[in-house]
Amino acid sequence: MAGVAVTAGLPTGYGIAGATSVATALIWVLPGAALLIAAGAAADFLRWRITRYRIGDDRVEVRSGVLVRKRRSLQRNRIRTVDVTADPLLRVFGLVTVRIGTGDQSSSGEGAVALRPVRRDVADGLRRALLRHAATAEAGSEGLLAKLDRAWIRYAPLSFMAPLLGGSAFGLVLNVSDWFGPQNSVIGYVTGLFRDVPLVTAIAILTVVALVIGVVAALGLWVEMWWSYRLEREPGGTLRVRRGLSTTRSISIEESRLRGVDVVEPLGARLAGAARVDAVATGMVAKAEDDKTDHRTLLPAAPKAVADRVAAAVLREPVAPIASVQLTAHPAAARGRRLRWALATVVVFEAPLVVLGVLLTDVLLHIAWISAVVLAPVAVVLALDAYRSLGHGITGGYLVTRSGTVRRSTVALQRRGIIGWSVRQSRFQRHAGLVTVWATTAAGAGAYAIHDAGTSTGLAVAETAVPELLSPFLERVPATDQTTSLV
């Protein structure tokens, strides 16, 4: 609460002091800060005194609330996650926050309860007890699957977070200067620095500065999120990810809930030969309320060979399905669709500039043709790369599908985890002989697509992956007995 009071009091006090005096500002701010700290601490003390929880044989019950009493009850057999988090303040006192969730992502927090704070040893006991189930681990298969290699930090600046963080830094400077008053002075100072510099050069210099700031920020964020990273398999069949520098996190995934893995290759990481591994599991909430990272991530961006090895270890396979299968290429019509979409995107971007340039100023027309000359080849390259990334295949008990260019995703989905199929075909796809087939599952994103496959090929893959599930809706051409279509 003292931190909240200081954060709120500094800009307020500065503004008052600018209008009157420092003494007057202190007279106004200090009593308010003291009241805020006292009221906040008292409310949290009452919450702590009133909150009670009980771990029964069948249910987890939590009673809380100061003015409005609330009782929460979760069935133990529906519990999917028990995550342990400790921010710097809790770590000072040897405490942690325990979040117990059922994986219900649509209930505004009603599918989870949080115990804050509890002792670390109590939290470890709760995590083990609530995730206990019939042993599924193979003999000698427990232990460390992956740990942090500090060389992986080189992939952090290659993410899209770097330019976003750099741009956000400029916005932060303007906001802070606005709080304390001298925003016009800051803008005037920057304008004065570039008074005699051509506009294009000034923009280039500011862009480089923003990128440098973004790279430094991305490195710091990566260290905060992934320091002390370890991926382990515990007795009883639980995968546990531990990571974090100032705020430590422990995320547990039951292997019985695992339905596959998703090897994600963002464009920058892919160009550097890196990939990350996400879990495709039932009951996994993608992000916690106070965490900006994906809780499904089992391995941060690492060399592709390491990602394949970790994916194989997680699935208990000698070789990762995504590495062992030869993916089937998609028809050339799929390439044409991507080229048309890419060029259409450029046209949509340029059209407003052209219209405004005709109506207002020729400067916008020059910006339009220059940006078109740059964007059109980039769009074509990305479209061709997106086509090359398309592929699908079946190996053993897994359906493998790959798509994407800016974010290429290769999913190995257990065939036994597929509970339905959704076949979609637009008018343009039907004319081109293409179809998109979605494998529906209760895990991960809920459905994974085979984009723009040949109609017969896509339906045949769905029929082969889960026999008899799609067969009643198919008919074959008697002449070849190979071509299939939906009834």
Automatic annotation (TrEMBL):
<feature type="transmembrane region" description="Helical">
    <location>
        <begin position="155"/>
        <end position="177"/>
    </location>
</feature>
<dbReference type="Pfam" id="PF03703">
    <property type="entry name" value="bPH_2"/>
</dbReference>
<dbReference type="InterPro" id="IPR014529">
    <property type="entry name" value="UCP026631"/>
</dbReference>
<protein>
    <submittedName>
        <fullName>PH domain-containing protein</fullName>
    </submittedName>
</protein>
<dbReference type="InterPro" id="IPR005182">
    <property type="entry name" value="YdbS-like_PH"/>
</dbReference>
<feature type="transmembrane region" description="Helical">
    <location>
        <begin position="197"/>
        <end position="223"/>
    </location>
</feature>
<feature type="transmembrane region" description="Helical">
    <location>
        <begin position="25"/>
        <end position="46"/>
    </location>
</feature>
<feature type="transmembrane region" description="Helical">
    <location>
        <begin position="341"/>
        <end position="360"/>
    </location>
</feature>
<keyword id="KW-0812">Transmembrane</keyword>
<feature type="transmembrane region" description="Helical">
    <location>
        <begin position="366"/>
        <end position="384"/>
    </location>
</feature>
<feature type="domain" description="YdbS-like PH">
    <location>
        <begin position="48"/>
        <end position="128"/>
    </location>
</feature>
<feature type="domain" description="YdbS-like PH">
    <location>
        <begin position="387"/>
        <end position="450"/>
    </location>
</feature>
<keyword id="KW-0472">Membrane</keyword>
<keyword id="KW-1133">Transmembrane helix</keyword>
